[in-house]
Amino acid sequence: xxxxxxxxxxxxxxxxxxxxxxxCGSVAECEQLERLVKSLMVNAQVDQNVKTILQxxxxxxxxxxxxxxxxQHILSNQENLSQWVSDIGQFS
Length: 92
Fold this sequence. Notes:
This protein is an all-alpha fold and 92 residues long. The chain has one domain (5-91). Helix content is 79%, strand content 0%. It has helices spanning 5-22, 27-41, 48-66, 70-76, 78-91. The longest helix has 19 residues, at 48-66. The radius of gyration is 12 Å and the shape is globular. The relative contact order is 0.19. The mean pLDDT is 94.
C-alpha cells in the first residue's frame, strides 16, 4: 500500500531532521529523499510553495548520493536542512 502524501511529507521531514541533528546520513537516505520528492512533485494535493522547496531537497539528495564525503555535504547544508523542515512544516 503506497504512503499518503501526508506520510511522505512526514518521512521527508524525518530524514531531513535526522541529517540536521546527527550531521550524518547514508546514501540510501539520500536516494529515499529523491524518490519521495519525485512522488510529491506529481501530487496535485501538495502545496505549490512546498514544491519549490522540494526542488532544493531533490538537488540536496542527488548531490548527497553522489558525493565522496556525505557527512561534509550534510554539514555544509545544516542551515538549509533546518530551513526546509521549517518551511515544509508551515505548508503541510
